[in-house]
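Working notes for the structural subgroup meeting. M.R. asked for a predicted model of this chain before we commit to crystallization trials. I am recording the input and output together here so anyone reviewing the notebook later can reproduce the run.

Input as submitted:
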Amino acid sequence: MIQPPLSLYVHLPWCVRKCPYCDFNSHPVRGAVDQSGYVRALLQDLARDLERVPGRRLESLFIGGGTPSLFGGDAIAALLEGIGALAELAPGAEVTLEANPGTADAANFRAYREAGVNRLSIGVQSFSDQALERLGRIHDAAEARAAFEAARQAGFDNINLDLMFGLPGQGVEGALADLEQALALVPDHLSWYQLTLEPNTPFHHHPPPLPGEETLWRIQEEGAALLASAGYCRYEVSAWSLPGRQCHHNLNYWRFGDYLGIGAGAHGKVSGETVLRYWKTRHPNRYLEQVATGAVAGERRVEGESLVLEFMMNAMRLVEGVKMGCFERHTGLPSTALQSGLGRARELGLMELDRLQPTPKGMELLNDLLLCFHP
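Returned structure, recorded in token form:
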């Protein structure tokens, strides 16, 4: 097995308020967060994780949450400086930080940029104040626009907007209006995805009225046409970008690359003789208590048919798919391990004949495609 590119994910788990649809490992702030203490813990965590991957450099870095923009510029600068002292970062590496418009601060944006963050991902979700209120967001549409402009003024020339559709009570017109307002800002990248009711969330236990299948289909069809007409290219199930602005960090996930995960609840994947997945202690306080002696909560090795399925679950999200050689290099398995699943998928018209690439039908019926490779 040839070692794939290596990325780093950093999890900052705190937020102002937990949204009713959110199933991420996020925790509402209770008093002041010891930002410098958590940064020190992250660097301890990273030092241990780097022992898994000696001599390998980091190709990208992603700071997610929670709400990372709750952390001040000094804390993010200390974090990035510490990471740079422990690990080699590839020249020109993409360094992303997630931001919530409700916690956006122009001075912090400038400090993030000066510290080395070169890509910002802003969680807008909607430009409808009514929809934002239903989603439990702490910002309004005006604050979303202001956050984007503040990011541009701070020098960010690579900005993603997170936008959802299929919101409670939303029709085709409302979803397209959201998309049009996002496009008016000319972001470099758009993550445009459907709201889903995840288990163990308030929305799952008390479902709001969501659009029906026909409405969702029209939103996706008309929205895709709108994005394409504005010059955005779809390269993944829910990711659209201007030319050359694809998210390199996420591409590494989807191409079955390796990544270290530091912070409360973070997940990692490293390749050696087999593929190893591991995850950290979820609760921030317990994580901080355990990090000095190791905060790994569990790990598992991925082999055989499970490895085939996990590879395809990632690679088939990409519009262009991947080359067969990518499967062989990143799993250590022969291409024959795919043959039975490929046969079923091609019979159903879900995969192209000459490469590991979903057809347009396969992109829309991704779950059906993946069932072809289920053990």
